[in-house]
Amino acid sequence: MTELEIPELPFSLEACGPDGDWAYEDGVLTGRTGPRQDRFVPPTGEALEPASDAPRLLGSPPPGDFRLVARASVGFRDAFDAGALYVHVGDHAWAKLCLEYSPDVPTVCTVVTRGHSDDANSFAVDGESVWLRVSRSGRAFAFHASPDGERWTFVRFFTLGAEKETGAARVGFLAQSPVGEGCAVTYDHIDFRTGAPSDLRDGS
């Protein structure tokens, strides 16, 4: 499978990186990562060429501001197993909003890569599911997470480059298992809306 059409999205998705066994049925997107697959460029040394990789499913959204939403569920097995929403501008310019076993508690985590990756934990999650949202606002992106898809917690606001580069960004889904033997990920309640949140910090 190289491309996948999801009715909730106004753009097609292309499988990138290792095989993720991506499939969509009845509103549910499923994927799987293999052993020791991750998308990360350690900040402690030289940038890797190529960057380490993990299964991704990416597409080009329409021009302008948008919000991509999905509830992520992960079959956790090992530390740092995760499902994520992902933004890609270039080989060393990308970001991910993860539900991650970090290292033994489900946690909302973020990674922003500009040459090298950073790594930040946000808050612990009760259970194996959480709602994730990535928004584009001009040349910037925002990450939010929610336990119920109603009230959103602000997680991060950042840019990955100039406005022209941001406008060409691809977005989608990622699965990872950096130190483990692989895990399954599920995304449902997928939604795409034009426009960015009017206020990043008011819970809307």
UniProtKB/TrEMBL annotation:
Pfam families reported in the protein's UniProt record: DUF1349
Region feature (Disordered): 33-56
InterPro entries cross-referenced by the UniProt entry: ConA-like_dom_sf, DUF1349
PANTHER family: REGULATION OF ENOLASE PROTEIN 1
Name this protein carries in UniProt: DUF1349 domain-containing protein
Species in which this protein is naturally found: Streptomyces cinerochromogenes
